[in-house]
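Open question from group meeting: does this chain pack into something compact, or does most of it stay loose? Before anyone orders reagents, we agreed to write out a predicted structure and look at it together. Recording both the input and the output here so the notebook holds the full record.
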Amino acid sequence: MLYGRAVIDLDHNATTPLDPRVREAMVELLARDDLGNPSSRHRRGQAAREVVEAARRRVAQALGAEALGVTFTSGGTEADDLAVLGVARALRAAGQPAGVLTSPLEHPAVRGSAARLADEGIPVAELPVDEQGRIDPTAVAEALRADPRLGLVSLAAANHELGNAYDLPAFVAAAREVRPQVLVHTDAVQALGKVPVSFAAWGVDLLSLSAHKLGGPAGVGALVHHRSLRLRPLFAGGQQERGRRPGTEATVLVHGLGHAVALAGAEQPRRRARAEALRQRLLEGLGALGARIHGDPVQHTGNTINAAFEGCDGELVMMSLDLAGFAVSTGAACSSGSPSPSPVLRALGQPPARAREALRLSLSASNTAAEIDALLAALAEILPRVREAGPVVRSAS
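Structure tokens returned:
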């Protein structure tokens, strides 16, 4: 509640409400008194182990993967870190090409991991993108052909700010045509539940996901990979998760993740159809308000719009909408607080001033047409005031 009013949530790419069915499953587990540490050998430990392994099987079945290739993490960021850092460091230790090929559009976890590897002397290359954030699969092949030091490709299945959806099988095919042994990782955090996601059909080697982006609890995610893939763990301290991710598994959170992933996979077509109808309604209303839309108008997740209004600072619009009872964002929650304009929009060729005009509106099947209309009405009142206030001066460019 905000000032006695319910908040209309249009920031579902940042997080989603806990699905009541997932909550119920977690509460039932919390009510049990027979669960111990999943690594313990006694009866209480083995009861917890069965819960963890049942969740692992649910995730694997939903994504067309092997259960032994599901490693639980604290969320999507850690899953991305483990994929990029873990694979590159393992390849380097084995004397194999360890360089990373990625794009300037990736989540901060992937870009940050790539920057850390560059500091360690591991080559990092970025693919070109066009003004709509599209990536040509032939560019993947050309980059691998040009640099034999590259051993890992990391590209998101859906962009967190633009809502672009990408043809992962095309990326995989282009990469393997040049180098059959190259490994491919995809961040599917923003894709799962919005587009069909299949580890097996896509042909990737690693896939990251996060529970709280699809109706599950915050604080848990998973890296799906081939069971025999070599990964250097990020942490020391134990042999949990087959030595890939030490630390006691969060049994209740993992249980919630398993249910959330299963539901997202089963309900994806319905969720997509509902959100896409609302997105179209919102697009039409934004167009009437003179919005500039960023991203691919054809290949998208069906729930996200990145819109900008000429002469309107995005932060001021966002804060004004917050006071009016609407939750929206200006980009990735993981980059919140940064004075710099969105690196995603900068990669699309937007100058800093125009990049700072952007808002990210991300819907779910739980939103309503009345909420969309209320947002548009609020924007019609807010935008003139923000324009009159003028640009905000910031120290970083």
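Observations to bring back to the group:
The domain at 8-16+268-389 is CATH 3.90.1150.10 (Aspartate Aminotransferase, domain 1).
The longest strand covers residues 150-154.
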